[in-house]
Amino acid sequence: MYKEGKIRVLALGLIRDQNNRIFLSEGYDPVKKDKFYRAMGGGVEFGETSKEALQREFQEEIQAEITNIRYLTCLENIFTFQGKSGHEIIQLYECDFVHPKFYEQETIAFNEGERKKEALWVDIKTLKSGNVRLVPEGFVEYLG
User: Which residues of 118-143 are buried (b: 16+ CB within 10 A; e: fewer)?
Assistant: First the structure.
């Protein structure tokens, strides 16, 4: 959850499949009427590393284990969501699903708090085209 005036630390995982697609969570800002996509993951809790947070978030949200976790970079994201200012420091990792079934599913429904969300595979060419919005902005350069 975002609290205005606070910086949130996130751990996000970049997972690609053999069809040149990225596994992303779909989001929607009702104030801007804007659909966007971002890598799966979530907030780092006090006392845990960002890598541990990433593993926990995948387990909590879609009951998935991840492996081959490799640190990529740190991104800073200042944004507006639902009319409120947000500020995030993102620890970005590249990783893989342990179980092959996750590569075979086109979409996975999950709950994030009280919100129903969906994760899905999105073609890298589509993301690079600018026809869909990928957040944070600098994320696109890590797609290869």
Answer: ebbbbeeeebeeeeeebbbeebeeee
The per-residue pLDDT for range 44-67, each reduced to its tens digit, is 999 999 999 999 999 999 999 999
User: What are the pLDDT digits (tens) for 1-13?
Assistant: 556 689 999 999 9
Judge contact between 138 and 75, C-beta under 8 A. Answer: yes
pTM of the model as a whole: 0.93
Beta bridge partners of 94: 14, 70
